[in-house]
Design brief:
Blueprint (H helix, E strand, L loop, with lengths): L3 H22 L26 E2 L4 H4 L1 E8 L5 H10 L5 E5 L5 E3 L8 E7 L5 E4 L10 E6 L3 E6 L2 H7 L1 E6 L5
Antiparallel strand pairs: 1-5, 2-3, 2-9, 3-4, 4-5, 5-6, 6-7, 7-8, 8-9
């Protein structure tokens, strides 16, 4: 019969051995030589598809815009009028040095150059380089040359900012 002191020691030793094996499996333990001659094939990194061009060109959205937003689609007409009224203090979308546009990302104080990106589904996006749609992208919901409506892809940003309505301001006289 094993005394309780010996049983506790054996249990502690078994727990320590299991923990050492688990840590070793995570790559944090000793590196033991392999007994097999074949090395496992390295995992292939997922390929990124080439960026698709957007059907809207960057020079089409560069300019001065009145800006407002709405959550409820029934408020769209009223919001467009509110955005038009903001032309006395316009939001300026600048031309980027690499062919993109200079705009703000969600929650960023400093504007940066963003790209217009297309997608296989035919949707257009504005965002940093990378997969389309990316978490920082905004989808261009509609664009007719005078009014552009965008919505952030990130659910939290979309909830906070709503549908952004840009109304092109008349050129200065």
């Amino acid at each position: 019969m094993i005394s309780s002191a010996h049983a506790r020691t054996v249990a502690n030793l078994a727990a320590a051995s299991c923990l050492a094996l688990l840590l070793g499996a995570c790559g944090g333990g000793l590196s033991l030589p392999s007994f097999s001659s074949s090395q496992p094939a390295p995992e292939a990194e997922p390929g990124t598809a080439p960026e698709m061009p957007a059907s809207i060109r960057a020079d089409e959205i560069v300019g001065r815009w009145g800006l407002a937003s709405f959550q409820n689609p029934a408020d769209r007409a009223r919001t467009e009028a509110a955005a038009r009224a903001q032309c006395k203090n316009p939001y300026v979308i600048g031309a980027g040095t690499s062919g993109g546009v200079v705009m703000h990302l969600a929650d960023q104080a400093t504007p940066q150059e963003l790209r217009l990106k297309g997608s296989p589904s035919g949707k257009n996006y504005i965002g940093p380089s990378g997969p389309t749609p990316g978490e920082q992208d905004r989808e261009i919901v509609s664009f007719d040359g005078r009014v552009m409506i965008t919505r952030f892809v990130d659910k939290d940003a979309a909830t906070r900012y709503g549908n952004m309505v840009y109304v092109r301001c008349a050129p200065r006289a």
